Amino acid sequence: MACFTAPQELHDLAFRYGHAVDTRDAEELGSLFTADGRIGSYPDGIVRYCGAAGWAQMIAEVAASFGETMHNVFNQTFEQDAHGTVRGLTTGIASHLVGEEESDLAVLDFAMRYHNRYAMEQGLWKFAERRLEVVWVERRPVRRFSPAMLGRELAGFR
Asked: With 0-12 CB in 10 A as exposed, 13-18 as middle and 19+ as buried, what is 141?
């Protein structure tokens, strides 16, 4: 595999993926994948989601499990093999709000690596495969933001 100077469109896929999950938009999520694209686990590659029904199932599971999510993309690398296949690694943190009562709220962070394979479809770069590797998780208490905090905890923002 050789380093590959990726077009911005490849970088944007990871950002758009996070946005689709965070806004619970199965249609947008599906638009980021090839017709036979899939999401699976790493390293075994067991497929969890594919196709319109799979994207809807994934979004429903996220919505049922977490109050809100926020995906943050950090590093992205891309390589192209001699046959033209483009693969990449995306690292990031996905924050998941858990708990129902203000006194019980916590953030569950997943430090993640996505092992990606990309393909062109109808002139657009898309994910052909994303394999999720969760490296570690962290849970910590949080509070929802309120404007009243501007005068107390965030005194510099009066």
From this structure: exposed
The residue with tokens 């993309």 is 73
How far is residue 30's CA from residue 86's CA, in Å, rounded to a whole number? 20
**62 CB-near residues (< 8 Å, 6+ apart):** 21, 24, 69
User: How far apart, in whole angstroms, are the C-alpha atoms of residue 77 and residue 82?
Assistant: 17
pLDDT tens digits, residue range 56-82? 999 999 999 999 999 999 999 999 999
DSSP assignment of the chain: -EE----HHHHHHHHHHHHHHHTT-HHHHHHTEEEEEEEEETTT--EEEEHHHHHHHHHHHHHHH-S-EEEEEEEEEEEE-TT--EEEEEEEEEEEEE-SSGGG-EEEEEEEEEEEEEEEETTEEEEEEEEEEEEEEEEEE-----GGGGTTTTGGG-
Backbone angles phi, psi at 107, to 5 degrees: -110, 130
Instruction: Give CA angle at 79 (76, 85), nearest 5°.
Output: 120
| pTM, entire model | 0.90
